[in-house]
Design a protein that fits this description.
mainly beta
Length: 119
């Protein structure tokens, strides 16, 4: 199994920044993805940003231009730099790890979540 440890959540003011980190204990497959999902109260969990083995990144429309996902493959760690935060970014953020198969990410492992609150 893969364990994911998240850190970096907290409170910020509108327009501020936060940086989230997620470290995986390892990967079951040579091709993998790691992503951040956000779940606000009463809403479904949504993918915010994704990083894969090849360094490719994808973003939700709401995150483009404000958030940057990056990774350190040697450390099995991904980072989410969140800038220009908005109140609507308030959510529990979950890190997820997946096997990358035919350019799809099949999420199997999840972190415990880290709260981001913007006011």
């Amino acid at each position: 199994d893969v364990q994911l440890v998240e850190s970096g959540g907290g409170s910020a003011q509108t327009g501020g920044s936060l940086r989230l980190s997620c470290t995986a204990s390892g990967h079951e497959y040579s091709g993998w993805c790691m992503a951040w999902f956000a779940q606000a109260p009463g809403k479904e969990r949504e993918e915010v940003a994704r990083y894969d083995t090849d360094g490719q990144t994808t973003y939700a429309p709401s995150a483009k231009g404000r958030f940057t996902i990056s990774g350190d493959n040697a450390k099995n760690t991904v980072y989410l730099q969140m800038n220009s935060l908005k109140v609507e970014d308030t959510a529990m953020y979950y890190c997820a790890e997946a096997r990358k198969l035919f350019n799809r990410c099949l999420y199997k492992y999840w972190g415990q979540g880290t709260q981001v609150t913007v006011s």
